[in-house]
Structure formats: C-alpha cells, structure tokens
Amino acid sequence: MIHISDIALLRKQIKQWKLQGKTIALVPTMGNLHLGHITLVKGAKERADKVVTSIFINPLQFDKKKDLLAYPHTLSDDKKKLGLASCDLVFTPSVSDIYPDGEATTRVEVPVLGVILEGKSRIGHFSGVSTIVNKLFNMVMPDISIFGQKDFQQLMLVQRMVADLNMPIEVIGLPTIRESDGLAMSSRNGYLTEEERSIAPLFNQQLQSIVASIQNGNKNFKALQLSVAKKLNDSGFKADYIEVRRVKDFQTASTEDINLVLLGSVWLGKARLLDNIVFNTFSKSKI
Ligand code: PAF
After folding, report:
1. Residue partners of 20: CB distance under 8 A and separation at least 6
2. Phi then psi for 141, rounded to 5 degrees?
C-alpha cells in the first residue's frame, strides 16, 4: 500500500492510474478505523481497480474544540488494517495543506439537509463535511466514493451535493455494520464506559420497536417518537432526536408516505450515538 501525504504527489499517482485506464474509489475517513470502515474499503475494492482511503481529522466539522482534541489518532494501526484490506493508497494530508489560510475561505453549503437533525444540533458540522468531501473529491477525482449508511444524513447530503454540482462521481452507501448485540459500530463507542456499553444496544432495540409498530399499522409517529425518547431517557440516555422522515427528501413523514427512515441521535455519557433504520410501511423487512 502506498502512503502519500502530499497533495501534488497524490495527483501524480492518480494521473498515472487514470492513464492506465484504472477506475478509482475513494473511502473518506477520519481514521480510528474499525470493521465498519474496513467493510467500506472491501466494498470499494469490489467496485473499482484502485482504492484510496483518506484519513483526515477535519477541524471544520467539529462544533466543539474539545471533541476535536479528544479525537483518537491511530495512524499506524489504521495503516495495518488498510494494508490487510488491500487498500491501494492511504492519503493523509496535513491540516495546513488542506486549509492553508487557517480555515476554508470558500465553503460548500447544502441547504435544508445541512441544517436539520444532526445539522441543527451541531451547528456548522455539515458545512465542514460538505467542504472537506468536496476538496477530497477534487484531489482524488474518484469514479466512485463509498460511505457508511450509519451516517445516513451525511450520505444523503453528499449525494445531494454531487447531484447539485454535477460531479461525475457515484456515491454509494453501504449497510451499517453492527456489534453482535446490535450496536452500530462507531469510533465513538470507544468513549463508553463498561456500564454504558452494556446498555447501549437498547438504543437500536428501541428504534426497531418503532419500526415494528409502524409496520403493524400505528401511524402516530409523534407519539412513538416521544415514548421511545422517554424510555431511553429513563434508562440513562439523553435523547437528542428520534424522528421518522421521508427517504426521498428527508422531510417530516406523513401517514401516506411509504419509504421512510427512522433517525436517532442520543447521548450516552460522553458518546453521541447515531443510528437509523430505512424501511417501508407495508413490508416487515427492513431495507
Ligand atoms: O464520516 C466521516 O468520518 C467524516 O464525516 C468524513 C466523511 C470522512 C468527512 O470528514
């Protein structure tokens, strides 16, 4: 596996691959890689000739400085995992190369999608995400890019940006990888104490219970959301939002809508956990 930090050297390598007719997949990450990321890399390898994984802890998307400072740096471990997953190139640019003026002077904003739910709770977060993903796309010029469905709003936002800006990139979302007890894999799970980790699976279980109720004909989304938020709060979580939305445009779901996504974000101790379930109202199987 090639390791490049310099943007000009990256462009040189990409140009060479493109001249050889190779297709390129980009898996953007912030490092601290777990099986969820590695599954994205393997999925990328099945779909393109060359896989580039970027590792860049993007200061622009952290709304709290202390979260940025606490974010784990695990490059040597990450490189081992990427090598074993047959990643072709790991790209680790520096903050000063990405933001030479200290911060991005030009930002990419995705209206609506960028300021609801996760974007409402973490002001500026999605502006930071769309800006860095855009910059990485301009550097790597991939044919495809792979994201995890765990961050469903992020995936929708990147797909929206690519469509709106006519970028010739296919953005693919791959299913959430879970621990055996159902907890979605996330770098943030590392912030949980042993006790918090033992109750964490309740989050997904409660989301599943909302989906089951809706599929059994209960269309009172608001009451379901409130009752699950209360159950989670009573069990030691702090629910931020639990919301049923339409998949097609992320607007609040009405009783006529069929293709839905249930999105949740909760605090458990120091960890902010995200999860979602994409489903339709008439089938018992989740999508
Ligand atoms: O999902 C992440 O790890 C980040 O938001 C991303 C897409 C790498 C952008 O910094």
Report:
1. none
2. 45, 55
Question: Is 193 exposed, middle or buried (CB count within 10 Å of its CB: 0-12, 13-18, 19+)?
Answer: exposed
Instruction: Report the pLDDT value the prediction gives residue 283, as an integer from 0 to 100.
Output: 74
Pocket around ligand 1 at a 6 A CB cut-off = 28-30, 58, 61, 129, 132-133, 151, 154
Assigned token pair, 172: 């693919």
What is the whole-number distance in angstroms between the Cα of residue 227 and the centre of ligand 1? Answer: 31
Instruction: Give the residues of the chain that fall short of pLDDT 70.
Output: 284-287
Both tokens of 166, joined, read 């006519």
Residue in 270, 47, 240, 32 with CA at minimum distance from that of residue 153: 240
- Cβ(157)–Cβ(130) under 8 Å? yes
Q: Which CATH code fits 2-174?
A: 3.40.50.620
Which CATH entry fits the domain spanning 187-280: 3.30.1300.10, 2.60.120.380, 3.40.50.300, 3.20.20.190?
Answer: 3.30.1300.10
Whether the pTM exceeds 0.90: the reply is yes
Domain ranges of the chain: 2-174, 187-280
Within 10 Å of residue 109's Cβ, how many Cβ atoms?
A: 12
Length, in residues, of the chain: 287
Q: Among this protein's residues, is 37 annotated catalytic? A: yes
pLDDT for residue 103: 81
pLDDT tens readout for residues 216-271: 999 999 999 999 999 999 999 999 999 999 999 999 999 999 999 999 999 999 99
Predicted local confidence at residue 26, as pLDDT = 99
